[in-house]
């Protein structure tokens, strides 16, 4: 039995409104949230064409093998950077002419794996064993309107296509829950001077990885309470009616990070020769969303954690973009006071 995708009706309307305008195909991204039982698709966005490709895509005998994977993958990475916690790029859609209806599966498979590889490269968190790793590919024929929905396990390079159900529903995310969290960031990153090949990018990634472990191992208070991972997030509120139901749509989350290592770890001092340092300071305001179909506390906490880590990592990448592109091997120390 394949996965079931519950899709917002407006997504179907958006896909139906796309006109090929003489192009052999149009592709884009499907955005939503995974759960253990089913996935939710709440948004679709087409990949913008490259300006220099506008003339090329009008060629009548173009094939899906000509699909620009690099451009589509970059689009997925940029969109993923903008998403709040709990929302991910679930997969891709492609609308083709009837002539290309049987020539799409290999191209979609390559693209879905390429996107996942690109988006996972800069993550500060690891995928858990019980996490849903299937991503969807949706093919629509512009002439017949026939839909083909399949999934691939992106954690398995040898994964083959599996059929999936695509079901439209109204107001899919209307009752979703939001979680708000503000985290004070104060990260000190030494810049190693012992290795010429240890660039600013590697130093920064190493420092952020150490900080990420503190966020991963932190204690998360939801509305001031510590709850068990397998508890229902809405426990104690499901029987409430009237005005109290509105309060269940938003939760305040606070993070308590541990100052000391566990007793079974030995604490040691490390001496490192440095050419400078980077200090990242500021307050990061994060927000995550989670479906309201019996959500677990662990799923809500995971969504908040990943939004914190993604927000800081993406912001650092933006701040350091010019330095990383034009890095000069000089001794320097800098402080970033705004994240």
From TrEMBL:
<comment type="similarity">
    <text>Belongs to the ODR-4 family.</text>
</comment>
<keyword id="KW-0472">Membrane</keyword>
<keyword id="KW-0812">Transmembrane</keyword>
<dbReference type="InterPro" id="IPR029454">
    <property type="entry name" value="ODR-4-like"/>
</dbReference>
<dbReference type="GO" id="GO:0016020">
    <property type="term" value="C:membrane"/>
</dbReference>
<protein>
    <recommendedName>
        <fullName>Protein odr-4 homolog</fullName>
    </recommendedName>
</protein>
<keyword id="KW-1133">Transmembrane helix</keyword>
<dbReference type="Pfam" id="PF14778">
    <property type="entry name" value="ODR4-like"/>
</dbReference>
<comment type="function">
    <text>May play a role in the trafficking of a subset of G-protein coupled receptors.</text>
</comment>
